[in-house]
Write a structure and sequence with these properties.
The complex is a heterodimer of chains A (79) and B (434). With 79 residues, chain A is mainly beta. Chain A has no helices and 5 strands. A 5-stranded antiparallel β-sheet of chain A has the order 4-3-2-1-5, with no helix packed on it. The radius of gyration of chain A is 12 Å and the shape is globular. Chain A starts with 28 loop residues before the first strand and ends with a strand. The model of chain A has no long low-confidence stretch (mean pLDDT 86). In chain B, strands 13-19-18-17-16 form a 5-stranded antiparallel β-sheet. In chain B, strands 5-4-3-6 form a 4-stranded antiparallel β-sheet, with no helix packed on it. Chain B is globular. By secondary structure, chain B is α+β, with helices and mostly antiparallel strands. The two termini of chain B are 14 Å apart. The longest helix of chain B is centred in the C-terminal third of the chain and has 16 residues, at 354-369. Chain A binds chain B through residues 42-44, 46, 48-49, 51, 69, 71-73, and chain B through 86-88, 90, 92, 95, 97, 105-106, 108-109.
Chain lengths: 79, 434
């Protein structure tokens, strides 16, 4: 698992601007397709899923503070 | 069976083999592994039950589980590593993801594509019907109506308990060397499974070359026997089995209670005897009233449990057996002792070990030589010691025979027949005596 202090956003995206989930350190903030912003809480390192805690969720505010497993296609960017 | 004759067909017939998968391996208690293989939350190790892969995993709440290694969506393996540590098991096909407690926690496009129509709680990993942590060893069955594991063992429960004690007699005192040996041999699983620890007659012939090769830990002392140095305690060895349950091994009953004095054995590795001498003294205090100390035992149908090795005979087709070896060693032993034990077991057993390569030669040729049209007219002979069994009040519930007999093999075959004919556990337990 990369050290979050040493990781740069560009290291976590490939040339198609796809987020490389395997490399996401705990603590990384992500922008999701729903418009939510969430923080990585654990990484299974399977490349498909990432555990996050919702920080902002305009479409569904009840999700703020919730932990969830998010699929790779729902992760839009590292913020 | 009463005449000691058994058709070769039960070892080579494809249809009978397929029935075994349902009648035997979907119902019996099977050995899965040991808790020392998964000490931390998220730790997992792949094992097998019958032909199928299972995952032994410790979940995030520290609970042990045994799951079938197959995604509930399209059947892909959810785990393709032999062991490791994980947060989830994610299927590499479509991405269904399961927590270490088996719950389906991730389904791609769940909201958009299923729109809540699929109940994820019904699609977790398939878990065994019963699991037992027996002094650190993990056993499981697919049948919820099977008796408890301890009842399943019957009078052989102390044997299994002893095999997972350290040499000083501490319960759950061992760990397994990693990784397991795994290799396939071209024979039916019952050739090794039903003869190991039940075929004392084979040693003098099959292992003749090993017996003169001085591979024992004592070097060439005592002629280099592959066994340890002979113990001076007066004792008589027997075949011991349960025809009703199928378990059995060969072990001595001592003529005096207690643990025999230690005999130095590890001449080739200085320091090892010092350790075992100390642990023997501790065990001697604990077991000073016992005449029987257990030792070797087949837990029906397919695992041999011994103090320093576990032999598992997984069916892998009617004519293929996947042979696994696990080696227990005292968890708190110094590295010197663990290394010596590991090296000796590698030299002695396993796919390249000197004794088991002898055995494989027999099983691998007996199978094809039993396939032929003419060959199948001829039954196998299991008449050694037939009708000469007896009982001894020192080992209640166990049938004995002379130490070189085929009592144990007959017991295993009788239990096999009971399983093959039984409709359910109601017909198998409590044990029906004819």
């Amino acid at each position: 698992m990369p050290d979050p202090m040493q990781s740069k956003a560009e290291d976590l995206m490939n040339i198609n601007d796809t987020v490389i989930l395997r490399n996401l350190p705990v603590g990384t903030k992500l922008g999701l397709r729903s418009g939510a912003v969430a923080e990585v809480t654990a990484n299974p390192e399977d490349g498909g899923w990432i555990y996050v805690k919702f920080l902002e969720s305009p479409a569904d505010p009840s999700k703020v503070g919730e932990e969830e497993l998010v699929f790779c296609t729902d992760v839009v960017k590292v913020v | 069976m009463d005449a000691g004759k058994v058709s070769r067909e039960i070892y080579v017939n494809e249809d009978i083999y397929k029935q075994e998968l349902e009648q035997v391996f979907a119902r019996a208690w099977l050995f899965v592994g040991h808790e020392s293989q998964v000490p931390k939350p998220g730790d997992f190790v792949i094992s097998r039950m019958g032909e199928e892969e299972v995952i032994l995993v410790r979940d995030r709440k520290n609970e042990l589980h045994v799951f079938l290694n197959t995604c509930r969506h399209r059947g892909m393996k959810v785990c393709r590593y032999d062991d490791g540590n994980t947060l989830v098991f994610t299927c590499p096909f479509h991405g269904w993801s399961y927590d270490t407690d088996g719950r389906l926690v991730g389904v791609p496009y769940y909201d958009a594509a299923y729109k809540g129509d699929m109940d994820r709680t019904q699609w977790g990993l398939h878990e065994v019907a019963q699991m037992s942590n027996y002094y650190g060893s993990i056993w499981a069955t697919w049948d919820r109506n099977a008796p408890s594991f301890e009842d399943y063992l019957g009078p052989f429960a102390p044997w299994v308990r002893r095999c997972f004690q350290s040499s000083d007699g501490t319960d759950n005192g061992v760990e397994l060397f990693k990784p397991a040996y795994k290799w396939r041999i071209p024979t039916n699983w019952k050739f090794p499974g039903f003869s190991f620890d039940g075929d004392s007659a084979h040693g003098a012939m099959t292992h003749r070359s090993v017996n003169v090769a001085a591979i024992g830990p004592q070097g060439d002392a005592e002629g280099g026997s592959r066994s340890g140095m002979n113990n001076p305690f007066p004792r008589t060895s027997y075949e011991m089995s349960s025809p009703e349950l199928g378990h059995g091994g060969h072990d001595p009953i001592y003529e005096l209670p207690g643990v025999p004095p230690y005999v130095d054995t590890w001449f080739t590795v200085p320091g090892v005897d010092d350790y075992y001498r100390k642990t023997r003294d501790i065990a001697a205090e604990k077991f000073k009233d016992q005449y029987l100390h257990g030792g070797t035992c087949l837990v029906w149908p397919n695992v041999n449990i011994q103090p320093h090795r576990i032999l598992i005979w997984h069916p892998h087709g009617v004519g293929v057996t996947e042979s696994w070896r696990q080696y227990p060693v005292d968890r708190d032993a110094p590295k010197l002792v663990k290394d010596a034990q590991r090296r000796y077991m590698m030299r002695y057993g396993g796919p390249a070990g000197l004794t088991e390569s002898d055995d494989m030669e027999n099983w691998n040729y007996a199978y094809p030589a039993s396939l032929g049209h003419i060959a199948q007219r001829l039954p196998y002979n299991f008449q050694m010691g037939l009708h000469r069994e007896f009982e001894d009040e020192r080992v209640p519930g166990i049938t004995l025979n002379y130490r070189i007999a085929e009592e144990n093999q007959r017991s295993r075959l009788k239990r096999w027949l009971a399983f093959m004919e039984a409709g359910s556990w109601d017909d198998l337990y409590p044990v029906k005596k004819s």
